[in-house]
Amino acid sequence: MKIGEIAKLSGVSTRTIDYYTVSGLLQSQRTKTNYRLYPASSLQTLKRIQVLKKQRLSISEIKDVLATQETSETTLLVDEVYEEFECLQRKITRLEEQLKDAPSPVKLHISKALEHQLAAITALIALL
């Protein structure tokens, strides 16, 4: 695929794709007329890059992650964790809406109750 095609299908700008290519995150081949051609697998790679960027990884860290051998087992685990994360994000957004107008004592009570949970979440993130 040409860069414009992959940009349209992925929703990523051609400038960003060019940056990823120069950074070594994406591979392309040049035609005799100097067009860059990307394999279909680049769409999946762009999706992975977007997920990793949401996790605030640097370009160098993303490059390391992309370089690791991916098995079907790890792919399933990554997909499962990402789905759970998205579900939690939706729940957090709903709770933020509900708490927006709550009285201060209620907010304080909830904050104290969540301190223990925050420690568990921090421990889980540390494992990553």
What is the ordering of alpha helices and beta strands? HHEEHHHH
Question: Widest sheet: strand order?
Answer: 1-2
Strand proportion, as a percent range, falls in under 5%
How many strands, what sense, and barrel or not for the largest sheet?
2 strands, antiparallel
If you compute it from the alpha carbons, what radius of gyration comes out, rounded to the nearest whole angstrom? 20 Å
Distance between the termini: 34 Å
Secondary-structure class: mainly alpha
CATH level-two architecture of the largest domain: Orthogonal Bundle
CATH topology assignment of the largest domain: Multidrug-efflux Transporter Regulator, Chain: A, Domain 2
The helix content, as a percent range, equals over 70%
Give the CATH level 1 class of the largest domain.
Mainly Alpha
Oligomer: single chain
Domain HTH merR-type: 1-68
Keywords: DNA-binding
Pfam family, one: MerR_1
Organism: Planococcus kocurii
SSE diagram, text form:
Blueprint: H1 3-10, H2 14-23, E1 29-30, E2 36-37, H3 41-54, H4 59-67, H5 72-99, H6 104-127
Antiparallel strand pairs: 1-2
